[in-house]
UniProtKB/TrEMBL annotation:
It is an enzyme of class 1 (oxidoreductase). It holds the Pfam family Catalase. GO terms for molecular function: catalase activity. Residues 1-18 have a biased composition (Basic and acidic residues). Its cofactor is heme. Belongs to the catalase family. HPII subfamily. It catalyses: 2 H2O2 = O2 + 2 H2O. It comes from the Bacteria. It comes from Corallococcus praedator. Residues 25-413 form the Catalase core domain. SUPFAM superfamilies: Class I glutamine amidotransferase-like (SSF52317), Heme-dependent catalase-like (SSF56634). This is Catalase. Residues 1-27 are annotated as: Disordered. Decomposes hydrogen peroxide into water and oxygen; serves to protect cells from the toxic effects of hydrogen peroxide.
Amino acid sequence: MHVDEKSKNTQLAKDRSDPTGNFLTTDQGIRVEHTDDSLKIGARGPTLLEDFHFREKMTRFDHERIPERVVHARGSAAHGYFQPYESQAKYTRAKFLQDPKKKTPVFVRFSTVAGSRGSADTVRDVRGFAVKFYTEEGNFDLVGNNIPVFFIQDGIKFPDIIHAAKPEPHHEMPQAQTAHDSFWDFVSLVPETLHMIMWTMSDRAIPRSYRMMQGFGVHTFRLVDDKNVARFVKFHWKPLLGTHSLVWDEAQKLAGKDPDFHRRDLFEAIEQGHFPEYELGFQIVEEADAQKLGVDLLDATKLVPEEVAPVIPVGKLTLDRNPTNFFAETEQVAFCVANIVPGIDFTDDPLMQARLFSYLDTQLTRLGGPNFAEIPINRPIAPVHNHQQDGFGRHTSNVGRANYFPNSLGGGCPFLASQQQGGFVHTPEQVSGQKLRARPESFKDHYSQAALFFRSLSAPEQEHLIDACRFELGKVESKAIQERVLEHFAKIDALLVTAVAEGLGLPAPKATPVNPKGPPASKALSMEAMKLTTPPSIQSRKIAVLVADGVDADELMAVRKELEAQGAQLKIIAKRLGTVKAANGKDVAVDKSAMTTASVEYDGVFIPGGAASVATLKKDGEARHFVQEAYLHCKTVGVSQDAEDVLKACEIAPTAPGIVSGAKAGAGAALASAFAAALAKHRHWDRKDNDRVPA
Ligand code: HDE
């Protein structure tokens, strides 16, 4: 069957309802002539039960809400397509991975885990990265996260960790945070969580954008070729814009200033044609080599370092279309780890096996019965024929009387597919053993990869992680819990345990770190180290330009031209909306008033010259705060030569890292290029004095 990148959109189009040029009707298609008053006896009299339009309108409103997801309730999604670079036939027979010309439609939902549907985007949390591929062989869902490992090893503990992480049951606090006693109580008692804790306390848990974070399938899957040879695989997504984070102070402020920060960023980037792109990669391990790895591939709290098994680039995911309707698509989409196509298979990872049960099960409640695969966003493009029937909300009207297999009355249809005809054949596996509830010995080391992660980070990244632990544990009220966590940290790293203990005002237990078993450090774990291999780009980055009356508009235009040519977006910010009068007498349009925006919404700040504008800005507390806050968050700040006075008023040295001054860089395009080069570094962590600057 033919599937291209437009196939899903064409299918969805059949269910779209466009009111343009149409009459308002009831659900039964009856045209409505009045919808502002209910039907009454006299204008001040009683309302009539007969008012079918009122009753229908109110009933539908009363039933608009469905249960939110028990985890990953807050999310944002986009449509796009996946295209392999070349045939992957040597590893898998999955059809969507065979032809480099083939574009398979996808729907991707990003999410936080712990918060409610209305919680803020920038909280410290894991991010979901769930991809539904609508392939010609049926739907394949790769339901991953932005962190390559998980908190627990066996799915039976999932309700426990989620209960501990979510708001506490007696008072339903705190929202969307793990900085509370019950979460850390669980962590302190379950050391298998510690590797993932290192990741969630790192900057990975506060991404700059959904467009700038990695994705991981987490579990080990199998790829199966057409001769039924299976290999182990770990799936990776790498964002082409690089992997970048916020800083914690910024993330907290954003949660109030713009709780939709990531949702807005994704939506606006796609509307503006900055399509997010991610490269799919395979880490392949031959079954015969699995024992030599030093980690058990069935243990989802462990990763395979890229130095041990490199990530092979396989193809590219491009997100190029926003959903038409949030509820119909983003809210009703149902991902399921069990949705798999021939050529890909599961493993015995006990976390994965639990997920194979949980997703469809939870969706039966959330989506109101067993027919949710018929909701347009969930429907495969591949044809569906089987004997499943009835249930709430059934759409399909099955033809004929033979609703069982085998049958003769329906001519034996629908019939079975052999492997050659695309039938899914489970990979044969020899299994024997005793029936028991137990963990394998090979799952028992909980510290060495936590140490590998911590030691792979650059000094500023380690500092951020330590601060995050001081923050989270600092909010824990029980000293016993804090002490138990420190005992675990002592087994990870001496610097970690001493610095966190100091922050908590507790004695540090003696450090007895467990050394990593494989490489002592892995470059792929540090965002700073990765930056060295990602081509620098300022594509879609947001720059705040602070202006007042008297601004040098000619210079502003020259800088703007160059930065926009490199793909950045500039927003002109002034005290009030409307226009400011430039030094050359022209009006400059203002995009945002200082009152409605904040430095945390931008990647960098630029201050053009113009004596009167500079004189106003350096006296304006709001403008100074804007610049100082950006400095504190290690962002690039650029000033024209005659705007250096603003830096002085902000107590910022023009020679500090990431400060681009016209005095050195020149003017116009030269200044813009120097600013762009600094912005492409994302942040300047080497600013030693930034906490000296008030913000
Ligand atoms: Fe999930 N997870 N999970 N999870 N998960 C859900 O399914 C579950 C796990 C992930 O945007 C739920 O439809 C169990 C790992 C994402 O709609 C639920 C276990 C990973 C999403 C569920 C895990 C994930 C979910 C809630 C441990 C990364 C959001 C709503 C065995 C590989 C998908 C729903 C979306 C959602 C169960 C662990 C990723 C309850 C039992 C590991 C991205 O079924």
